[in-house]
Amino acid sequence: MAKPEWFRRRGWFALILGTIIAAAVPAGIAGAEVWTDQSDYAPGSVVTIHGGNDSAGAPGYVPGQMVDVAVSGPNGWTSSCSATVGDDESDSWSCQVTLDSDPAVAVGDYSYTATSTDADGNPISESGTFTDVSNVFSANISGDNSAFAGAANAKTYTANPQFTGNCGTSPTVANIGYVWSVTAGTASFSSTTVQNPSVTFSSLGTVTLRVDATITSGGSCTNSTAFVTKNVSVTSTTLTQTLTPSSITYGESTDISGSLVELDGSGSPDATGLAGKPIAVTSNTGAGCTGTATLMASATTLGGGSTPPKGNWPDVSPFAIAYTPSAAGTEYIKADYDGTGNNAPSSDCDTLTIGKADTTTEATPSASSITYGESLTVDYEVYSDHGISGNTATGTASVVKDSGPSGGNLNCTATSTSVSQAQSDADGSGGAKDGFDVTSDSNHQFSCLPDKAGSYTFHVHFADTDGNYNGSDDSPGSSVLVPTQVQVCKAAPAIAADWLHAHGIKAGTKTDVNIVSLIVGERADAKRARFPTYSYTHTSLNSLVGPGALLGPCDTGYVGSVVARTDYWSQHKLPK
Questions:
Q1: The CATH number of the domain where 50 resides is what?
Q2: Do residues 103 and 164 both lie within one domain?
Q3: Which of 132, 163, 179 is the C-terminal boundary of a domain?
Q4: Residue 151 structural domain
Q5: 46-76: per-residue pLDDT in tens?
Q6: pLDDT bucket at 15, cuts 50 / 70 / 90
Q7: What is the pTM of this model?
Q8: Residues 236, 140 share a domain
Q9: Contacts of 439 by beta carbon, 8 Å cutoff, 6+ apart
Q10: DSSP string of 455-512?
Q11: Residues 6 or more apart from 381 whose CB is under 8 A from it?
Q12: Is there a single domain that holds both residue 194 and residue 338?
């Protein structure tokens, strides 16, 4: 294509200008149609890529046309930039790319290719190279790649300056400043401006530490800055506790055991656990294991073996801590690992429910049948198959009427008596009275005087006051009770002996049935006034005609007073 008139007129000037430019550009790129502002760069530098036509108009960049530049470097690094061809004497253009700031990525050889089209639509492609090898100041971070969360597990990391290429004499530590930060996860530093801070991790997973190191003076690296990162896999520990069972009765024990394991970054336990670590087990007064803590036991995790696995606690057979609470109620049991060594602390809290133990109360009346006007003595026994040595069972006992004749009362004194008995260790697996057993004596028994004839049932109720046994709410039936029935009879009538004789009743000749029929059927009629009266008590009648035949239940047809004379049959021999 012919050159335009303006180009022909400017030809000699352009040739002279091209010569001047060629002399001005860095060595090695003079006369090139693409070039960079430097042949070598430091990591993180901005690289400016230039292009344009030479004095002959090659390669043919057209003003206003786009130029695309693709850049590739070491370690798979790539970048690109674009520019518009300018309308100047050389139809020049330029664009920029920024190198990676990490020397581990940036240091190496680079190449780039610029593409466009000429005025006829033909492709233009030009290439060039540059390097990142000289005057390199960098750093690395030394320290563990894994750590545990928690203040007890702080670890030290150190920034180590690196000098490569043509950096010259290494600057002294005094000429380097450090700034630490966290770019992923959570951690804190003992100081963010020292070379080797102590780092405390507070999140699991991957935590990325970054240090920016800046040279203030020294060699060819003066006023250069580098930063480096380090990924740390942060783990934690999980302590588990098991109460077997978690609900017991006063006097019983629970077995406490557990395990201590490490967690990886995903929160999954590892396979080995932690061995030989101290575990403290406490009983706490508040929910969630708050409030006052009382040390119950100290344990150590297993150091090896597969049964039970390494990390389980306690480490001695039977591999459980037997704990017997001293009172009924609720306790909050906490197992705690304080993070001794390079492991994070952890704990577990479980609720232990201690129910009240049952008691049994038995009443013993002095008689099963009394005559109206007589009194009844009631003794009792209270016992339980649960108890703890050193504790005392306390409470009160009282007689409770369950049923009786309308308006009738037992009228027992005292109203209640005190119960106090030392306990023995018992968990319910032995005898019924192993926990405690108390029997009333003459100072603690009841004397009852029923005020109406009839049939009564009653029981003795034990009301616990120490809080460890059922019945403390004084509700009937809260103890195991044995009701007792007493028969109160009306007084038996006097029977006329001559009247019996007149009716042909002779000693030893009549059956019990005859006598029952005679006494019950005919009773003491008007004839009793005409004959001498020889009376006998209900006791002798019972002996004569058999228990219950006359007096149980009482014959409500009888009237009269209680007699206490000598038995007629033993004092008078009737003629045969």
A1: 2.60.40.1930
A2: no
A3: 132
A4: 134-355
A5: 999 999 998 888 999 999 999 999 999 999 9
A6: very low
A7: 0.54
A8: yes
A9: 379, 380, 381
A10: EEEEEEEEEESSSSBTTTT--TTSSEEE-EEEEEEPPPPP-BHHHHHHTT--TTTS-H
A11: 361, 362, 364, 437, 438, 439, 440
A12: yes
